[in-house]
Structure formats: structure tokens, C-alpha cells
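Q: C-alpha cells for this one, please.
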Amino acid sequence: MNILFVCTGNTCRSPMAEALLKNKLQEGEVRSAGIFAGKGEPLAENSALVLREVDLHLDHKTSPVDSEVLGWADLVLTMTDRHKQTLALQYPDHQEKFYTLKEYVLIEEEQWTHLKNLYSAFEEKRLSIIHEYQDKVDEHELEQKLFEELEEEIQEIEQLEKELPDLNISDPFGGNLTVYRNTRDELEEYIDRLVKKIHGGE
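A: Here is the predicted structure, written as C-alpha cells:
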């Protein structure tokens, strides 16, 4: 399995995740990239320091996300839901590969499928209401009608979303060593879960 980690600039979170997973997973390949990354920049100094504390070294140069690396990847794990949304908008042909790291290891497939189905049904009903009423009522009345007709669906989606964990890895950029250390440890916790999932929950 080819796994790609994605963050913003590819200097902190995604390369730390890459180094941690490479150390724990013998099979497959692991890379990292950034949505707004330059090309060939070094790893952030504090990222390198906190990796060295756990005897890890990554010979890293930043790399921007592009179609080529997304084509290479079997699985794309982002650091935040915003990274995931940005990728889905820019590269819709690959969106079945996109997950946040936490989402991929924490959320049961049935729970995630249920939420996606709710979103899909909500959008279908919303478009149907707009189509039915847009020529019959003014904009304010249409908004009111949408709210009334979709209130139950909105409540169901909100309730399910409340039960989901925070899906973002904290950004250490600009922080001190302690902040970077905390992000490294947070990443390690979820990468341990990732390795377990890859190995079939062993």
C-alpha cells in the first residue's frame, strides 16, 4: 500500500507522520506532501529535533501535492478536515482516497457510511424543495420553507456529528519544542492505530 500524508506546508506534521510510519511499517511506501508547499525546502528545525528525540531521522525536502503523487497513492491521509476538503475540491477524481488520519483510524465504516448517506439524502431533498418552490415564493419564503422541511434531517446530522471525535491533528507551526513534541506524540498515537488497522486489527 502506498500511503501519502498531507498537511499545509509539508514542513511539520506530514513529514513527522511519514517518519513515524516508516519506522513502524515494513511493507509499502510512505510519502508526504503539502497543499501549499514549496519545492525542496527543509524539514522544520523543531520537527527534526523532536524526531531525533525518538531516534528518528528523515532526509526530507518539501513537495507540493499534485496529480502525479495522488495517482501514486492508494491512501491519502490529511492532518485536518480542511486539508481533506481542499483536496476533494481540487482533485475530485481521487476523492475516494481522502481521509483525515483520525477519521481513518477512529470512525467505524458503518458510522461514516451512515453520515455520508444522510448528507446525500439531505442534498437531494434540498434540491427537490428548491425545484418545487423557487418559482412560487420569494427568496425569504423559500429559505423558511427549506428550514421547515429539512429541520428533522438537520437535527439528525448535527446529532451524529456531535458523536464524532475531533478529526484534526494540532498544528505546531511557530510553536516551541514542547508544542512540536505534543504534536509528535499525538501523531504517534494515531499512527500506532493506523498500523494496527493495516495489519487487520492484530
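A few notes: The first helix runs from residue 13 to 24. The beta strands are 2-7, 29-34, 75-78, 98-100.
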